[in-house]
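User: quick one - fold this with guanosine-5'-triphosphate bound?
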Amino acid sequence: MTEEQLGNLVEKIVKGDRRAVARAITIVESDPDAGLRVLEKLPKPTKQSPVIGVTGPPGVGKSTLIGRVVKELITSGNRIGVLAIDPTSPFTGGAVLGDRLRMLELSLMEQVFIRSMASKEGTGGIADATEAAARILEASGMDFIIIETVGAGQTDIEIAHVADFVMLVTMPELGDEIQSLKAGILEIADIVVVNKADLPTADNTVRMLRNTLQSDIKIIKTSATTGEGIKEITNILTDLKRGIGVKDQAKRRKRVADALSQAIAKNLAKTLQQEQNQLILDTIEKIIAHQKTVKTAAQEITQQIIKKIQIK
Ligand SMILES: Nc1nc2c(ncn2[C@@H]2O[C@H](COP(=O)(O)OP(=O)(O)OP(=O)(O)O)[C@@H](O)[C@H]2O)c(=O)[nH]1
Ligand SMILES: [Mg+2]
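Assistant: Sure. Structure tokens for the protein plus guanosine-5'-triphosphate:
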């Protein structure tokens, strides 16, 4: 992409051109270096759009709920970007089509931009691409950016790094699933939503969660079917947009710090991998021949790597 093409693309994004937004997201997904150029070219946002992560076990109604919330938010003049992170596992693969159909209705609305993104589990790349996509949507004038992920592990934790606010969605009668949520995912939630509140055991689930969760985490009952609780969610999101009720800046800061330190560690590990192999090969014989101990050799090699990195 020439500098001029890049300039044109960004100009269109800022005007809210959907095709330009879609193209830019494809770029960040498929070509990280080109994606970085797009990001660097984006103007500083004149307004910040809250990034809301919606996560939770398969089938709890995340997509349906997002649909409801989006419809409500656009009635007050908001424009919304939705990123649905596709699970690649065959276990949840079947649900993706249903998601698409449900999302189709939304995608036809002019104030809504919906996009599926593929998560390649284990590569760790999804957080980068998602964060970049969110910045692009923000530049295109979206008031809210909503990211749906299936609560299935690492991807959600990574999305929490990107999101300003995380809604963990669950539903009645999940039993064991709620127990297993405790590992990691509950910790990243800013609010917990018990969806399908139209089911008879919803109150039991709320009670159980209340006993499990820290007392400052709000639990909200919703039903994407009847509309119960939707207004409460949109009020929270609207407050976020206004900068109200973000009492958990400390949490957000911690998440960003975690994300940053993980990203730095990843960079360092990569550099280390590249630099140390030869140094290790050169030293093995000396250790075996008792000319050096592992500890002294490791110290020397570390020093050499640091010097090399500094020169670069
Ligand atoms: N009774 C009831 N059913 C609901 C409610 N919300 C969603 N559903 C149904 O639950 C099923 C799953 O809904 P989805 O919105 O696809 O759930 P999801 O969490 O996005 O699922 P994945 O993306 O596969 O993880 C659908 O059949 C919905 O119609 C609700 O509030 N009450
Ligand atoms: Mg879904």
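One thing worth noting: Confidence is low (pLDDT under 50) at residues 87-95.
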